[in-house]
Predict the 3D structure of the following.
Amino acid sequence: MINNLMSDIKWDDRGLVTVVVQDYQSGKVLMVAWANEEAIIKSFEGGRACFWSRSRRALWLKGETSGHYQLIKDIYLDCDGDSLVFKVEQVGNIACHTGRNTCFYKRLDVDKDQWINNESVIKDEKDIYGKHG
Amino acid sequence: MINNLMSDIKWDDRGLVTVVVQDYQSGKVLMVAWANEEAIIKSFEGGRACFWSRSRRALWLKGETSGHYQLIKDIYLDCDGDSLVFKVEQVGNIACHTGRNTCFYKRLDVDKDQWINNESVIKDEKDIYGKHG
């Protein structure tokens, strides 16, 4: 069944698509990640967001270590097929490894010439992943 | 002034960052694009979203042809510095070259095994760009 859906996705030269993760209730953009074919199939079939970690070069089921899974409510594909939006319920309300709701916590303040921290830490990083990271 | 801000951005091996464009009122994700250093400076200084077109290999002031500029209200940077969110006022309410509000107009319907068109066309493509594209 899922093959028809997959054929509309355009993979880049690394075999990846861009995924924007958005909170399905607040509408907040939580993170941007990348996914290969295996990660997309796992996301579509399992209902939890799964990506490809470019740094670790491995499949990355978001929340597997922290428990902060992203339960997929809706999936959208864009006009040219190379980007997806996952609308999710963010377990624990924490998407960022820094313990914040969103990875996009730095807000531009042009007058002050700096990025202002716009989100508080809900849970300390060491309490999410353990003291040894 | 802008140099401090730029130093926090991490460019990929193509010299690009990912930009998620979001409607500042509806919260809808309108599109995903890429920007190089010049495009980001132009966006920050001019207040209208500017990108790097990977297909045309050229600077791309969004709306220059169509008039559908994106007026930047807020800019956010993510934890690892390689993705930005532009919150914008979308002139004409049309972000997509197909004449729709958003490029993410295909919604996944797993049961039907297809992408369902979720957004109506506000303006025909030929009326946006002219009959010769």
Observations:
- Chain B has a mean pLDDT of 93.
- The radius of gyration of chain B is 16 Å.
- Chain B is about 15% helix and 35% strand.
